[in-house]
Amino acid sequence: MRVVSGNYGGRPLKTLPGKTTRPTTDKVKGAIFNMIGPYFDGGLVLDLFAGSGSLSIEAVSRGMDEAVLVERDRQAQAIILENIQMTKEAEKFELMKMSAEKVLTMLSKKFDLILLDPPYAKEQIEKNLLIMQERELLSATVTVVCETDKSVELSETIGNLHLVKQKIYGISKISIYEF
Asked: What pTM, to 2 d.p., does this model score?
């Protein structure tokens, strides 16, 4: 696995061995960013189930200013820290070592890009997006990227967010929401 494009393009990324995380393949990662960007002129990213940190590192590589990565698994946290070091711009990343639920009660910034790839997709995604809207954590121009198993059916509308794009890549489904 590697950073696909941008400032860190081509640099290798580490992933967690085993089945505790499901790393997004380079092909799917490239497709996601082609759907939403592919490049950005600043902004703040929230990666709520960071895994290896690959998606938020890709977003910063492609022009986002900073990323907040949330991961409660200790082994995954160690991989994220190694991947952040690889960027040589660690100041652009903040790793919060706790559950998504706890983080959502603590955050106060407005995010421009939300990355959601939770282990239990449908319930988790919809609940978390409603909490984020209630707590006003989403900018007016937010883009929300949800990665799920292709069998997961998310709602067309979640609060004030509306499904704007959806594509299937192998076993993964990418759903994009905006206000």
From this structure: 0.95
